[in-house]
Amino acid sequence: MLVETRSQLENLFSKVKPYFPEINPRLRINKKKRKNYVMVADVSYSGDILYNPDIYGGYSVEEVRGIFAHEFGHLINQAAMKYLSSKEKERRRIDYELNQDYRREIERAADRTAVLRGFGKEIYHLIFISLLDENWRKKRGVEHLSLVEIIRLMKK
Ligand SMILES: [Zn+2]
Predict the structure, then answer these.
(1) Residue 37: Cβ within 10 Å count
(2) Binning pLDDT at 50, 70 and 90, where does residue 89 land?
């Protein structure tokens, strides 16, 4: 079943959210910002989730659950950085954009958090279908957990 409406999206958001009780993000639909991303956790650490409505129509329920869990993983990991100075946060934000090793660390940590919160199946599925896209595989695939790593983590 594809996720096609805003209310389906809101319903999934509220179902995944309780697995991440430390944070309280809002779902924010934003048409203009960062169009090439399906959804990103707000880099300013405000705790919002941005979701591109032009793209979400193409995702299944399981995939959307995986996307939310991954993004909540980012927010959990970012919350641990809240004591950093704003200068340091800004430095890391720039690092995320420019330094692939750092970005890889951040992306893999978000995957790991999501898997350990019980969304292993969803993350596995999401990465599996993303890997079918050659462009994603080359540019972004290297920044995420491998399928084998996900399976191993799920056994923990
Ligand atoms: Zn991410």
Answers:
(1) 11
(2) confident
What is the reported pTM?
A: 0.87
Q: What is the pLDDT of residues 140-155, one digit of tens each?
A: 889 999 999 999 999 9
What does the pLDDT read at residue 115? 98
Report the separation in Å between the CA atom of 134 and the middle of ligand 1, taken as the mean of its atom positions: 18
Contact assessment for residue 25 and residue 48, using Cβ atoms and an 8 Å cutoff: yes
Task: Return d(Cα 146, Cα 153) in angstroms, integer.
Answer: 11
Give the position of tokens 């790991």.
112
Which amino acid appears at position 22 of this protein? E
Tell me, in angstroms, the distance from the centre of ligand 1 to residue 85's CA.
22
Count of Cβ atoms closer than 10 Å to residue 70 Cβ: 24
* CA 31 to centroid of ligand 1, rounded, Å: 19
Distance 108 CA to ligand 1 centre (A): 8
